[in-house]
Amino acid sequence: MLHSMNVVVRKAPGDEAAILGLRAAWSVMSNGGLDTQLVYINDGVFNLRGVPGYIGGLLERFIEEGGTVSVLRDSLEQRGLTQDDLVDGVTVVDQDDIADLVQDADATVTF
Amino acid sequence: MSKTVTMILRSGSTENDDANFCMELAEAILSRGDGVNIFLYGNACNLGSKPVPYDGRSPISDALREHMDSFMLSEKIEGIIAKGGKIATCHTTEYSRGIEGLDYLEGVEWGDVGNTFNRYLLSTDLLISIGR
Fold first, then answer.
1. Which residue segment(s) compose the domain that A50 sits in?
2. Cβ of B37 under 8 Å from any chain A Cβ?
3. Segment A29-58, tens digit of pLDDT
4. Chain A residue with minimal CA distance to B5?
5. CA angle A84, A80, A7 (to 5 degrees)
6. Is B121 close to A28, i.e. CB distance below 8 A?
7. What is the pLDDT of residues B47-72, one digit of tens each?
8. What is the architecture of the domain spanning B4-51+59-130?
9. How far apart are the CA of A107 and the nearest CA of chain B, in angstroms?
């Protein structure tokens, strides 16, 4: 049985994978009770800009209800973004931190 | 001691290496005496439905039809289920494709990410995501 999971989202809003990853993370946290970490990399960082509608709303609920959200610093910098451009409650991390997350979790899935 | 592998498949439905790989991996896992769950998410939900035959005149050549038929996974999916594998779709991603009302292949379960996927995780030793 799994107790913890990282959900890595690499796609921007407009690609179904972005919302599939968020829904999976929400589900395993709220229904499955897993310790869940959402990790945004590559174009996935655009999901953290305060997207209107379902995506932004579910991300806000995920954070409010105890989910952890991280974003890769390199991906932000490559797109000219900083933490100030993101919604509240997101932690900016480096590659080494993500390696630790992967090592510490029971599973890591990518979207 | 046998283990259970759960796969989230996001790619389908035809001439798709990810979907084919997933099903072949499932067959290999079952043949070793281990368990398999497959959750058909996103485009992969297309794989769970029964083919709908077309009775009209078709312009598809026999050669092309034979080529495409070789990639169809319907029989393989039913075979995996017959050997004990569990396969469920995500009805939400079916809804978004307008296929929620189609009949399922033999043994495929109506599912959702909130309940079915989490139920799979309860018995899972290893989780793999396949798709792009």
1. 4-110
2. no
3. 999 999 999 999 999 999 999 999 999 999
4. A1
5. 70
6. yes
7. 999 998 889 999 999 999 999 998 99
8. 3-Layer(aba) Sandwich (3.40)
9. 6
